[in-house]
Design brief:
The complex is a heterodimer of chains A (about 300) and B (about 350). By secondary structure, chain A is mainly α. Chain A is built from 16 helices and no strands. The longest helix of chain B is centred in the last third of the chain and has 28 residues. Classes of the chains: A mainly alpha (about 300), B mainly alpha (about 350).
């Protein structure tokens, strides 16, 4: 590890090594070695499983048999599992369903949440505190799973896609985070817009939203990750209609060893290795998270969400 | 400026300052003045804002408040066809049954055991990680490591359990390795009820330790470097500085997070347990939340499940409010301010 290199060589510039303050003693070789080892172990604990999963999804049945299961040495790579997914069947359909729910759900959640957040963000407006309390109570207490199930069933939501979106569409926490950012939007700007005759819709659309792009982007990503990852909603409202399942439920089905039914439905014979296909599903579940992750990270390291988390 | 004139005309009490300076220097005094107006005027003025909150309120009414009303089924012998209005009332019978049900008390004990083992073992991890990351001089390397360890926070529990299964399960990497090296019947970490608490703990550490590190790193960066410098000049070595500057600097946020965690003692890890219940079995993985789900939805005994749910809801509110009270006593904000 090059942690101790203080000279501004190409390596230290690549790693962005900072100057050590003059009062700080140079660390002993043992300390540096221990730190380096700890970091390698931490990275391996997270990356090795992901690597093995991706590699197995790309492996032929031959190399999987040879390894006796998960593959860690690349050999005999093939895209057969992914071709199977693209060609349709349960997994391909589940992927489309997951995308559909995530996109529709995020748009719906954002529309409702932005309106609610702005509606409560103007200080001194009528009843905004009461409305905030009405919303916050649901953060502390809820009816629990069974009454929710009864309500959704009574509305005809069993086996319906809207049941996977509507019950969790409003995250009061997200609304409160956005509200506090909207409230911080320059009051001067809003007042001058009002004087020029702009109504609340126009102020929200033309002033508040453009100046709060960072927070709305992060909240949208949080909603999207939430919809993409949601599993229990499916378990509760759509447990048996496997033709309608999103990806997480297919993954769960594999996990609980009921995969015979799914692979039979997809019409696999022995052409595609089951383990490779399962690992392809895992990989496909991870990829969208990986794609949006850099954007979320950029914002939360800025401390955008920290302030929110601390209230 | 004609617009300015009409807008001041529609609010007679607004100060004249506004029409002179579009920047609005008199904003605060004017908003104070609006508040004193009769409520009907304010209602009419803010009707657009109120309309904007309606969709969210409607959703919360249907999926938040209606289920709360539905909790009355805990005092009924609820029948799907009779509905809430016509199901017979049974008073506290469901709760009597609950409190004498050995299955419920077993789930209660499992909940407390899993929660405390998990909390004690996983809580120090992000603190240690934060101190380690903070000590790295390589800024970019630090960024990469942090990005990697935070990543699993965005994975679903189905995914996390699958990843663990491929590592430690019956056909996982470790199992295969041991089999190839002569172990006839390797230990299966994924289905062993006795070690389930450690499995739960390691999953939580794998998924959340990196995410929790962010809060501690922020607390570390708030410690003034002058403190370290002064201590170093006075001859305090690495460990002394860690003990007397770094750890005290983390104490406040650590206590706050610990207290807030306690508020969720009875409801933690619902998905995590439910996913692993088929593999591990009821003896270890059945917690109160899964008990309520399995009795209420799976077995169709809605009233009994709702009674367990109501018990959970009420105790959780007490725990969360109590935890916040304690946080306030420590001079911290908690979930909400005093």
């Amino acid at each position: 590890m090059t942690i101790t290199t203080a000279s501004a060589g190409p390596v230290s510039r690549l790693l962005g090594i900072e100057e050590r303050p003059s009062w700080q003693e140079r660390p002993k070789a043992v300390t540096t070695g221990a730190k380096g080892a700890a970091i390698v172990v931490i990275l391996l604990l997270i990356l090795l499983p992901l690597y093995a999963i991706v590699l197995t999804s790309l492996s032929s049945q031959g190399s999987i048999n040879e390894a006796g299961g998960m593959v860690i040495w690349p050999h005999g790579l093939t895209l057969a599992a992914y071709r199977e997914v693209v060609d349709g069947g349960v997994v391909g359909r589940a992927l489309l369903i997951s995308f559909g729910i995530t996109i529709a759900g995020t748009l719906f959640s954002m529309a409702v949440s932005i309106l609610a957040a702005y509606g409560m963000s103007r200080s001194g407006s009528f009843g905004h505190r009461a409305i905030l309390w009405i919303m916050m109570i649901t953060m502390f207490f809820n009816g629990g799973i069974i009454p929710l199930f009864i309500v959704v069933s009574a509305l005809g939501g069993y086996d319906q896609y809207w049941a996977l979106i509507a019950p969790s569409a409003v995250s009061v926490f997200n609304v409160i985070v956005m509200r506090s950012f909207f409230a911080g939007t320059a009051q001067d700007l809003i007042d001058s817009a009002k004087i020029d005759g702009a109504g609340d819709w126009r102020i929200l659309w033309r002033i508040v939203l453009p100046t709060s792009r960072a927070v709305t982007a992060v909240i949208a990503l949080f909603y999207a990750v939430g919809y993409w990852n949601s599993w229990f909603n499916i378990m509760l409202f759509m447990p048996s209609d496997s033709a309608k399942w999103p990806l997480q439920m297919v993954l769960y089905d594999y996990l609980t060893q009921n995969s015979q039914m799914v692979s039979a439905a997809a019409g696999f014979q022995n052409a595609v290795p089951t383990l490779a296909l399962q690992m392809a599903v895992v990989t496909i579940t991870i990829i969208p998270v990986l794609l949006v992750y850099p954007f979320v990270q950029k914002h939360f390291t800025k401390g955008l969400l920290l302030g929110a988390i601390k209230g | 400026m004609t617009d300015a004139v009409t807008s001041t005309a529609s609010r007679p009490a607004a100060p004249v300052v506004n029409s002179n300076a579009p920047g609005g220097t008199g904003v605060n005094s004017s908003s104070v003045r609006y508040r004193r107006r009769p409520w009907l005027t304010r209602l009419r003025r803010d009707r657009t804002l109120l309309i904007m909150t309606l969709p969210a309120l409607a959703l919360l009414a249907v999926f938040g408040y209606a289920p709360m009303l539905g909790l009355v089924m805990a005092f009924q012998d609820y029948d799907l066809y009779d509905g809430l209005l016509h199901s017979p009332w049974v008073g506290l019978a469901n709760f009597q049954q609950l409190l004498t049900d050995p299955g419920f008390w077993h789930a209660f004990r499992s909940t407390l055991e899993l929660f405390s083992v998990q909390l004690i073992l996983s809580f120090p991890v992000p603190i240690a990680l934060a101190i380690l990351f903070d000590s790295l001089m390589a800024r970019r390397l630090k960024g990469i490591i942090q990005a990697v360890v935070t990543l699993p926070h965005f994975f679903s529990f189905v995914l996390v359990v699958t990843v663990f299964n491929e590592m430690f399960g019956g056909a996982g990497l470790l199992d295969t390795y041991l089999r190839n090296h002569g172990a006839a019947n390797p230990f299966n970490f994924m289905t062993n009820p006795g070690t389930f608490k450690f499995l739960v703990t390691s999953q939580i550490i794998w998924k959340e330790a990196g995410w929790s590190t962010i809060v501690f790193l922020a607390a570390l960066s708030a410690i003034s470097p002058a403190l370290y410098e002064a201590a170093a000049v006075d001859g305090a070595g690495h460990w002394l500085r860690l003990r007397h500057i770094t750890l005290p600097g983390l104490k406040g946020i650590a206590i706050l997070l610990l207290i807030l965690n306690l508020g969720y003692a009875l409801t933690f890890g619902f998905e995590q347990m439910l996913i692993q219940l088929p593999g591990v079995g009821q003896s270890s993985a059945q917690v109160i939340t899964t008990f309520s789900f399995q009795n209420g939805i799976v077995a169709g005994n809605y009233s009994y499940g709702a009674a367990a749910g109501l018990f959970l809801g009420v105790t959780s509110v007490i725990l969360i409010l109590g935890a916040n009270k304690v946080a306030h006593l420590f001079g911290e904000d908690g979930l909400y301010r005093k």
